[in-house]
Amino acid sequence: MPAQPPPSEPKFEHGDEHPIPPPNNCPTELNFLAKTGADLHLSSRVKYNRRCIQPVFSSDFDRNEVANITTALTGEGETVIDMQNCAANKLPKCIPIKLTVPKPYPSEKFANMIFGISTGYERLNDPSSVDTFAHWMAGTDAHLIALVTDMQDRSAAEIRALNKRFGDAGVKTTLVRALDDSFTVSQSHFTVLVHMLNHTTPETQWYGLLDDDTFFPNLKPLSDALAQFDHKKDYYIGTLSEDFAAVRNFGYMAFGGAGAYLSSALAQKLGDNALKCIEEATAPEGDIIIRDCVYRHSKAKLTILDELFQQDLMGDPSGFFESGVRPINLHHWKSWFHLRPDKMSLASNICGDCFLQRWRFGEDEVLSNGYSIAKYRDGLEELDLKFMEKTASNLNDGFDFSIGPFRPKLEPDAKKSFLFEDANIDDKGVLRQLYVWRGNADIGEMDEVIELVWKK
C-alpha cells in the first residue's frame, strides 16, 4: 500500500514552543507525565517525545489493514525532561498526525445482559477490580451478580462497603452468598446462575458466566454478537481455549475466561436443575459443570463466537496484542500477565473499535493502539504483519488451529518496544497515552517516553 501523504496540520492548543514556565510549575502538556511519572518509577531524566493524533472517523475502511503513515513517532521533536524539575523544560512543537479510525461506539444501555462471577472478597475488593468492572459496566444498566465465596467470614459492614464501592463506580451490583457454604469456588461459579435468575427482569435476555478477570473493552461488540441469536431458544455460546491440549484435557466447552453465555430460555432450564447438576458433575471444574448441565438438560450444543478469547498464553503476550486482534474480551490480565486493560482500552471511548488497531509509522515503527509502539531494527519490509509473533512461552503446534500460523520470535535487539503504561481522558475529552521504553540504569540509560495526545 502506498504511504499516506503528510497530513495538513490540525490546530492544537499550545502547538508552538513554550517559554520556560514559572519555577516549580510544569508546562501544562507535561502534567499527566509529571503526575504519573513517580507511580511508573521512571528515571529522573527521560527522553520524551509526543505526537498529537487527530482521529478521522470513518465506517468505510478496513479495520484490519495496517495503514502507512509517513511521519515517524520517534526522532523529530525528542527532548530530555528533568522529572525532578520539569519547570525548566522547554517543549518542542507537538507534531500532528491524522489517523483514520472507526466511529465511536454509540451510547447504549445493556439491561438485556446480566453477568455472574464467583470470587473471594479480597480479589473483588482490589481497586483494580472495581476500576476494570467500571470500565465496561458503569452506566450501562447491565447487572453484575458477584458471589463472594468467603462472605460468611466477612462482616456485614465490609460487605456493605464493598457494595458501595461498586455502586459509587456506577456498576449495578448485587453481592450474594453461596447457596451452600460447603460449595467449592467452581461449584459456585455455576450456581451463581440461580442468583442471577432471581434478579431477572422482563428485559433480561442473556446470562454471562465469567471468570473474575474477564474484561470487555466495551459491551457493544458482545451485545451485537449475541443479538444474532434468539434468546427465546436454547443457546450455549462461548469459545474454546486457544491451546488444543486444554481442549483435549477438559473437553469441548465454553472456557470461562472468555465467558459462557446462556440464552434466557436455556438459563432457566439450568437453574431449575442446578443442584442436580452439581450432583451429576463428571469433574470439579465450574466450566465442566456448566457444560454437563447443558448437555444433560437441553439439546443445545456449544456455539463458537469469533473474537472471544480464553487467552491461555503464558509468558510474553506481546505477539497476541501486536497481531491486530479485535478481541471482544480479554482474560488473565492480573495473573498470567499483569496489565491494566481498563487503561489500555481507553481509546475505545474515543474511537470505538480502534483498541489494538495498528499503523505503520515511518520506515520501521508499528503502533498497536493501547499496547505498544514497536521500532524494528531491520525495518518492516521483511516483516509479515499478517502473522502473530511467537512470543508466548507455551506456544506449540496445538495453538495453530486457533491463532496460528505464527512468525518466529525476534531477538531482543531486533525490536525496541515502547510498552503502554498509562492513559487518561481529561474533562475536555482529550486522551493521553504513555508508551515507555525502559533503559538500563546500570549503564546510565534513561527511560524513553512517547506520549500520544488524541483530540476529537
Automatic annotation (TrEMBL):
Keywords: Glycosyltransferase, Membrane, Signal-anchor, Transferase, Transmembrane, Transmembrane helix. Residues 199-310 form the Fringe-like glycosyltransferase domain. This is Fringe-like glycosyltransferase domain-containing protein. Residues 1-25 are annotated as: Disordered. It comes from the Eukaryota. Residues 10-19 have a biased composition (Basic and acidic residues). It is a single-pass membrane protein; Single-pass type II membrane protein. It is found in: Endomembrane system; Membrane. GO terms for cellular component: endomembrane system; membrane. One of its GO terms (molecular function) is glycosyltransferase activity.
